[in-house]
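Researcher: I've been going back and forth with a colleague about how site-specific DNA-methyltransferase (adenine-specific) might be arranged in three dimensions. Neither of us has a model we trust, so I'd like an independent prediction. The organism is candidate division WWE3 bacterium, in case that matters for your notes. Sequence below.
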Amino acid sequence: MSDEQKRLLEKQLWAVANTLRGKMNADEYKNYILGFIFYKYLSEKLEKYINETLLSRESFKFAEIKEETDEGKKILEEIKKACVNHLGFFLQPNELFSHIVKKGKGELKDQSTFILEDLKVILDTIEKTSMGTDSEDDFKGLFDDVDLTSSKLGSSENKKNEAIVEVLKLLNGIDFRLEDSKSDLLGDAYEYLIGEFAAGAGKKGGEFYTPAQVSRLLAQFVTVGKKKIRSVLDPTCGSGSLLLRLRDYVEVADYYGQELNPTTYNLARMNMILHGVHFDHFTIRQGDTLTEDRFPDLQAEAIVANPPFSAKWKSEDDPALVHDERFSQYGRLAPKSAADYAFVTHMLHHLSENGTMAIVLPHGVLFRGGSEGQIRKHIIAKQNTLDAVVGLPANLFYGTSIPACVLVFKKCRQDDDDILFIDASKDFEKNKNQNYLTDENIKKIFETYKDRKEIEKYSHKATLEEIKENDFNLNIPRYVDTFEEPEEIDIKQVAHELQKSVKREPDIKAKLNEILVELNLESPF
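Model: Here is an independent structure prediction for site-specific DNA-methyltransferase (adenine-specific). You can compare it with whatever you and your colleague have in mind.
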């Protein structure tokens, strides 16, 4: 997408968001806008598939089929079977996005412009047509958060209808270029909106979105040296953007994700479908990753995650977790107040022997003692799976300004006698209220990792013996010396400048007296 196209798209999407921005906060209106974008996408994709594939030899188009006639019903029944099998859902011609927009705008003869009830039925229909099919899990409850009865849309049913009609009209004016197989304009639009909503939602936004530059870095870490990945897992997948980022670097066969928040779980499934991932090739499940492992048998070739920092969890309050093989081999569970290492060991459990995983964590995991210190020691000394520690700048993430780090793990390491430390905390650019990594920053980090380079005051390959001597404390300054000698002060020069100032004092006082006399003011001298 060119810069001009990107600016136009962002301008159009901003206009859409403005219709609801004054009615509710970003965390609420995102559900409507993303939901309707998804409805538009499904509708246009369905119509395109039917017209270009199922009706390619016919003299009529899908929208022209007379639904009320016997012949029309028969044709639609056959089309429905093919669509559910291929796309996973079905809509009638009068349920298409374009038809509903025309109705809302008053362009359909003898029909009311009230569309709220139609929309409720349509969004429900998309889910119902997938029931009992292979796509059921991927469409079930997708539109649960699009609440068309909310009083925040308007004080009356007509006011609510007006707001929704305006949103749909604006979305209808955006061409997502579905006919261009190489275009990912729709995916770009979705990613842009998710990022905007995350920024607007503050701390809540961080729960479902990893900044693009950070997700690019993690994706490169886990795909280095590969062209294809059999499977990728994100156990705290949020909106799914981190999973999808791997497509920029390798061909991915299957995507797996788990998400606790039901709204965000819906976003992730929408995101997969909007990016053209077929329902046969992604599995997103809802549940608490640490207490409800929804993929018990999965061994993923790549794992990426940005879990909530130092989240509270049940820990030793749940006897089942003590004996859970994801945690039991480490001797102790991660503390109740910080589940960071619970996520790490969960991911290691699901990492295949030829796999790589990268996880974003708070710096505390590098040096905190107690049970975390014991788990850290086991991972380094017994498993030898930690491959790299990367310190990131502060204020990169939505909802928190603290600096984070990335830990990279491998089951079969090529350099198994050292761990690479990178201090990238000073390389960033400022952007409004947040910092961000530039392309150059990302390239420097990744190439340093890939080539395992030692750069003065930036990176260091620490031997396992060196780490043992530090009592398995991974605090980056212990290994990367970033100390800068303070600039020497020339005392003689300072004294000389001071003497010059003292000599000028009488002249300055005299000049000040002249000014005070002119102003008829009393001199303090």
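Researcher: What would you highlight for our discussion?
Model: I'd start with this: The two ends are 70 Å apart (CA to CA). After that, consider the following. Residues 202-478 form a domain with the Rossmann fold fold (CATH 3.40.50.150).
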